[in-house]
Amino acid sequence: MYFSEISYALDSENIPVAEAYRLEKIMEQVPFGPDFVSKEELLESFVNIRFPGYGSFYANQRHSHPEQKLELMSVVIPRTGKDRYFVVEEQFNGGFKVVADFITEESGAVRVKERGNSLDFLSSSDNIIFVKPRSAVT
């Protein structure tokens, strides 16, 4: 029995090793988007893609910077040391479109900024952690 999500996620036996590879493939291949008609649909899909008991991140950068059209989101892929990142862009009709969807072992990005056809993924101290092409969909 687990008393918190943290104790569950830290338990190395919560997902058997034999299942970890299969789970990784599922988390990598489950579709996300590419189009959402509303923020509510986007957030519902994001919650549904997250593996129970493991982390997820939603930057909500449009809330603090209304001129910002991009949102950064990520989910932990259990027992792999990898995260699946999503960058969505607000459309003129109020919907959202996925402009990047990729898996990486690099973590710590809390903000995304567009630079030409590239996306800079920034740490909390605004250092660039990694750069991906705008259409990074894997």
Question: What does the model show?
Answer:
The chain has 138 residues and is an alpha+beta fold. It has one domain (5-133). The protein has helices at 5-10, 17-29, 39-49, 61-64, and strands at 35-36, 56-58, 70-77, 82-90, 96-104, 111-115, 118-122, 128-133. Strands 1-5-4-3-2 form a 5-stranded antiparallel sheet. The longest helix has 13 residues, at 17-29. The radius of gyration is 15 Å and the shape is globular.
Topology, pairings included?
Elements: H1 5-10, H2 17-29, E1 35-36, H3 39-49, E2 56-58, H4 61-64, E3 70-77, E4 82-90, E5 96-104, E6 111-115, E7 118-122, E8 128-133
Antiparallel strand pairs: 1-5, 2-3, 3-4, 4-5, 6-7, 7-8
Notable characteristics:
single chain; 138 residues; alpha+beta; 3-stranded antiparallel beta sheet; 4 helices
- Mean of pLDDT: 84
State the end-to-end distance: 36 Å
Spatial extent as radius of gyration = 15 Å
* Secondary structure: helix percent: 10-25%
Strand order of the largest sheet: 1-5-4-3-2
- What's the structural domain tally? 1
Total DSSP E strands: 8
The helix tally amounts to 4
Class inferred from helices and paired strands: alpha+beta
Gross morphology is globular
Unreliable residue stretches: none
Taken in chain order, the helices and strands follow as HHEHEHEEEEEE
Largest sheet at a glance? 5 strands, antiparallel
- Strand fraction equals 25-35%
Brief write-up:
The chain has 138 residues and is of the alpha+beta class. The protein is 25% helix and 34% strand.
